[in-house]
Amino acid sequence: MSREATLKIGDLELGEGLILVPMAGITDLSFRRIARSFGANLVVSEMVSAEGLVRENLSTRYLLQSHPEEKPLTIQLFGAEPEVMAEAARMVADKGADLIDLNMGCPVPKVLRQGAGAILLRDPERVKRLVAAVRGAVEIPVTVKTRSGWDQSHINGLEVGRAAEAAGADAITIHPRTAKQGFSGIADWAFIAKVKQELKIPVIGNGDVTRPEHVEQMRQVSGCDGVMIGRGAMGNPWIFEQAKQLKAGRKPSTPSPQERLEVMNRHLALYEELRQGRPSLTGFRSRLMWYTKRLPGSARLRGELGNCRHLETMIKVCEEFFSTL
Ligand SMILES: Cc1cc2nc3c(=O)[nH]c(=O)nc-3n(C[C@H](O)[C@H](O)[C@H](O)COP(=O)(O)O)c2cc1C
Question: Which of 106, 224, 308, 318 is catalytic?
Fold first, then answer.
């Protein structure tokens, strides 16, 4: 695929292939709607437990809330049992999912203990069975998101990629850190190139894309077909639009303080809507902090927000902060 080509996964045409990562507790429906409105070609749900889904767990139902603005709807599932994953996949496909992503990279102990997430990097045979079961259960595209390996002595992400492709995965995302690394160190984009050279399915690169120019840099280093952005988009949904402007040879636009405030307020309104008018104080505060993080005086603001006990006071403090910029 040439670098000018668009990303295609199954029948889904995904333009420039800029994707918002799944992040538990962060990429909820409110964030996904904002990211789509700023040009993300695809957004992915927070990870959803296949077991929880099959057992009709309440918190799982919350994670499945969706809105037409986020289409194509992508649900990420995690689990260890092929039959359960297949059943969960059927359920989300019936609910209108357009794509299913399988989490094979989460290093959180609670997930690993279930035999799911990054522990699968140690068991390519199970990867094959899981992907094959889901592939056989639904018509929509199925993708896998994984890491470079389990630890420095087991850099087996490529093996997992081969297993996923052989079992019918339509694309793979590589976050080139090991499970043991968690989020420390630097994402090794050269590893994405290795996977890209070996596999026929589209390869999506992920890790440390925090500035719009990183998108093209990652493509050049790795030849990847799409780019997933996570932490670099928190409080910064402009990154998708800016990367597209750069690609088109234009100077990326910088949001004014007023625009930043408006988008923050829109995000918060969508978050309140999602929480049915009862957002958690912590959730609200962290979203305010995302949007003010890199601005002058944000450390002082962070302290002030920490002392606020009501949403209204937080908003007032933030508005005053923006009026000084
Ligand atoms: C708070 C947090 C939650 C995450 N949750 C998920 C998740 O639910 N599923 C998943 O595949 N990856 C998850 N990740 C990993 C991200 O999708 C991504 O691979 C990682 O943050 C590297 O990309 P970035 O450097 O662009 O942030 C999470 C990361 C963070 C920081």
Answer: 106
Ligand 1 atom nearest residue 210's Cα:
26
Q: Tell whether 196 and 316 lie within a shared domain.
A: no
Question: Which pair of structure tokens corresponds to residue 105?
Answer: 């990279």
Range of the domain at 201: 8-247
Q: What is the CB < 6 Å shell around ligand 1?
A: 21-26, 46-47, 76, 103, 105-106, 145, 175, 206-209, 229-232
Same domain membership, residue 153 and residue 195 = yes
Sign of CA dihedral 197, 201, 207, 210: positive
Model confidence pLDDT, tens digit, residues 106-118: 999 999 999 999 9
Mutate to test the pocket of ligand 1, among 20, 21, 59 (most ligand atoms within 8 A of CB): 21
> Comparing C-alpha atoms, which of 106, 228, 130, 230 is closest to residue 179?
106
Q: Are residues 112 and 23 in the same domain?
A: yes
Q: Report yes or no on 32 lying in a domain.
A: yes
Query: Which pTM value belongs to this model?
Result: 0.96
Domain-located, residue 3: no
CA-to-CA distance for 145 and 32, rounded, in angstroms? 18
Pair 137, 236 in one domain: yes
Report cis status (omega within 30 of 0) of the bond before 252. Answer: no
Assess whether 228 and 203 both reside in one domain.
yes
Number of domains forming the structure of the chain: 2
Q: What digits encode the pLDDT tens for the residues 195-248?
A: 999 999 999 999 999 999 999 999 999 999 999 999 999 999 999 999 999 999
